[in-house]
Amino acid sequence: MFPHQRVIVRRGPESGLPIIVAIHSTTRGPAIGGCRMATYPDWRDGLADALRLSAAMTVKCALAGLPHGGGKTVIVIPPGTSEPARTAALHDAGTTIEELGGAYATGPDVGTGPDDMVVIGERTDHVFCRPVEAGGSGDSSPATAAGTVAALRALCEFRFGTPDLARRSFAVLGLGRVGRRVADLLAAANARVVASDLDESKRPHQDNIEWTDPDECLRKEVDVLVPAAMGGLLNPATIPTLRCKAIAGPANNQLDQEGAAKLLHDRGILWAPDAVVSAGGIIHATAVELRHKSPAEALTLVGAIGDTLRAILRAAAEAGIPPAEAATAQAATAQAATAQAVGR
Ligand code: PHE
Is 60 one of the catalytic residues? Predict the structure, then answer.
C-alpha cells in the first residue's frame, strides 16, 4: 500500500534544487509539518526523509489531539549553498505549497527558522511561525523545549516517583535551537546536565552544563538521555551500549527501525515516544495562529504534553508493551475515529 496521500518531487523553478513536499494524511484536517533544509548524499535520501517525517507528523498531530494531518517539506541543498540560492529554494517551496491550495501548511524545521518562513510567505500564506512582527507566532523552539520539559517531568514522575528535576541527571545530545533551550531549562531547575553537539562551536560556556563528545554523551550513565539532534539514534548498534534509565527528547524519528522499541523495552530503558515529546511547536503555532489563543493559553496547552505522555506510559505498563506500541495504537484509534466521523 502507498501510505501517503500525495508526494511532490520537483526541480525548483527558481533554484534548480530538489523540492520535496510529502502529504501523508489530511484525514483529521489540513496537513502540517516543518520545512527541512539539509544536505543529503542523494536527493532520494531527502525523499525518504520526507516520507518518514511526514508520516511521523500524522502520529504527532493525532496524539496531540490536533485537527491536522502530517506533512513535510524537504529542500535538498548542496554544501555551501549561497544565500541567493537558499532564498530561491525557499521561494520554490512556497510556490509548491501554494499550489496545494491549503491541503498543507509548513513551518520551521532543521535548517530553517522564522526569517525563512517570511521568505516562504512571499509565495504562500500557508506558513506558520513567521516572526511576531511579521504577523506569525514566532520561533517554535521555546514551545518545543517547554513541551519537552513537561514530558521529562512526567517521565521522571513515572520512572522515579517524583517530577522534580533537581539533582536528577540528564544527557542532552544536540544543542540546536531546541536542545540548547532544554539544557538551559534543566540546568535552571538544578538538574545535573551533560550536553554535546557534533558542532564544537555550540559548546555552552557555563558552570552548570558539562560538555562531552557526542559518543560519550550518548553512553553516559544518567537518569535520562535526551535526544535533541537528528533521527535514527536508537538502533541495534547503539541500544546495547546505553547506560541511561530512561529516554525522552525532542528529536523526530529517534528509533531507526520497528525492532528498536522492543530492544529498549527488553533492556528496561523507558522510552517516551518522540511524537508526544516534540509536539510543543505545532501545539503552540496552531493555537496562536489558527485558534487565536494568547501565548499564555498556548503554553498551557503545551504543558498538557505531560498528561498525554503519562497516559501512554500507564497504558503501556498495564499492557506490558513498549510505549511506542501504545502510542501507535492510540494514534491509530484517533485517526480511525476521525475517518469514521467524517466518512472518509
Ligand atoms: N519542526 C516542527 C515540527 O515539524 C515545527 C513546526 C511548527 C511545524 C509549526 C509546523 C508548524 O513539528
Answer: no
